[in-house]
């Protein structure tokens, strides 16, 4: 694939893009292992190259590879699927495209899409997607958009719910999972002791990502409507931040080891998996590691305990066509087929994931176990994070650093949150 002059990014632009995008990708890390190889560029008319994380393309028999072979065989196309560790994927995409190479198609975390779009790395698919847009959850469409244009098709959707250990609850005499913040704190206190703790938190960007539902539940907002000013330090935000941090700082219901949860979701899940923690908030991507690591674990899934209102945060992946693709029509054919009704089996059977389609409740997800049902029910109401180019810096750097300064007792919650809001607003002003 050739690099036209208007597609080439400056070195400064590349550094900004890779820094922000790569940080957000860490939160999507649901798989491990090395990449399967470098990109070929997909220059031949009958060849397309797709890059995804190893969560989707980690082995030779991955469902995405099989789907690509099936479609390619029918269309006379060769679709090469290549996998990379999730925390490296966005940086590799950015670097490759800036250098004139890279894939034709990418499967990327939705939080990366606005930054890809702002850097002109994705094709605007608004017109192509218009007829099918209503078949997808609005939140996922919004997350895959930038400045009123759609740059990727939503693929899977995820949101955050509460996992609770049924055996530990029964032993503590607690009959049901908490439904409110006060109930969560009371239960966590009862469940803390004897080497166990009631609730789990994460450090760095894991902690900042999991804070957003608390903010929304208390009536707070992340940014203003224009996306130019941070609002998360308003009174509603500070109250939620204090409660969130207080689980560790004031009440001691969180294991001290949470301070080391900085690299992967597996670190965050481990204390729950080994029954050292009774509750944690996580998305459906946490279910497979639990099933693998402790298949006999007796646990339930419930909606997050609510504050003034109920809320959860949206995640997932979207599929975009890169600006380096020479055969956009062929690439779009595959993308539209893979995300169409009837192909949910790829996500369901291959990855135990939930498609971002509104028809997931019509029985097509019957193959998923009971633990997934809450996530399916919440899919339509989960809230996306702001679609701004500075989001990676805000979530993984500004807020992550603020969170760490609080849990490490270097700054007060108020000071850290106010400083973070100022830094976030400055990041937004830089575009």
From TrEMBL:
PROSITE patterns assigned: TAT (PS51318)
Keyword line: Signal, Transport
Organism: Spongiactinospora gelatinilytica
One GO location term (cellular component): ATP-binding cassette (ABC) transporter complex, substrate-binding subunit-containing
GO biological process: maltodextrin transmembrane transport; maltose transport
InterPro entries per UniProt: SBP (IPR006059), TAT_signal (IPR006311)
Family per record: Belongs to the bacterial solute-binding protein 1 family.
Position of the signal peptide: 1-28
Gene3D superfamilies xref list: Periplasmic binding protein-like II
Single GO MF descriptor: maltose binding
The protein's name in its UniProt record: ABC transporter substrate-binding protein
């Amino acid at each position: 694939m050739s690099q036209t002059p208007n597609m080439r990014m400056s070195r400064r632009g590349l550094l900004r893009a890779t820094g922000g995008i790569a940080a957000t990708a860490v939160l999507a890390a649901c798989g491990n292992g090395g990449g399967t190889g470098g990109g070929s560029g997909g220059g031949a008319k009958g060849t397309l190259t797709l890059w995804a994380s190893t969560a989707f393309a980690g082995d030779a028999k991955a469902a995405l590879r099989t789907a690509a072979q099936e479609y390619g065989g029918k269309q006379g196309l060769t679709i090469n699927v290549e996998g990379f560790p999730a925390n490296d994927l966005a940086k590799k995409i950015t670097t490759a495209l800036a250098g004139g190479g890279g894939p034709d198609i990418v499967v990327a975390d939705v939080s990366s899409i606005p930054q890809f779009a702002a850097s002109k790395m994705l094709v605007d698919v608004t017109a192509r997607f218009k007829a099918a847009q209503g078949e997808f959850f609005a939140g996922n469409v919004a997350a895959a958009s930038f400045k009123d244009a759609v740059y990727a098709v939503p693929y899977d959707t995820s949101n955050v719910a509460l996992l609770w250990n049924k055996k530990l609850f029964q032993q503590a005499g607690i009959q049901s999972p908490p439904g409110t913040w006060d109930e969560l704190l009371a239960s966590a206190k009862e469940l803390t002791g004897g080497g166990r703790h009631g609730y789990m938190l994460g450090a760095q960007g894991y902690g900042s990502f999991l804070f957003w539902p608390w903010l929304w539940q208390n009536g707070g907002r992340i940014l203003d409507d224009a996306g130019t000013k941070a609002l998360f330090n308003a009174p509603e935000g500070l109250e939620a931040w204090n409660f969130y941090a207080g689980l560790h700082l004031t009440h001691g219901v969180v294991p001290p080891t949470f301070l080391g949860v900085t690299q992967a979701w597996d670190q965050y899940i481990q204390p729950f998996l080994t029954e050292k923690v009774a509750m944690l908030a996580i998305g459906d991507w946490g279910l497979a590691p639990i099933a693998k690591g402790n298949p006999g674990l007796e646990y339930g899934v419930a909606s997050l305990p609510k504050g003034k209102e109920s809320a959860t945060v949206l995640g997932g992946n979207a599929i975009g066509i890169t600006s380096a693709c020479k055969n956009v029509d062929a690439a779009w054919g595959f993308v539209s087929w893979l995300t169409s009704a009837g192909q949910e089996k790829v996500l369901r059977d291959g990855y135990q994931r939930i498609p971002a389609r509104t028809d997931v409740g019509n029985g097509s997800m019957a193959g998923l176990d009971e633990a997934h049902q809450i996530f399916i029910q919440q899919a339509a109401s989960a809230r996306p994070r702001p679609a701004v180019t500075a989001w990676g810096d805000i979530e993984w750097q500004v807020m992550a650093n603020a969170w760490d300064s609080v849990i490490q007792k270097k700054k007060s919650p108020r000071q850290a949150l106010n400083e973070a809001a100022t830094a976030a607003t400055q990041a937004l002003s830089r575009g």
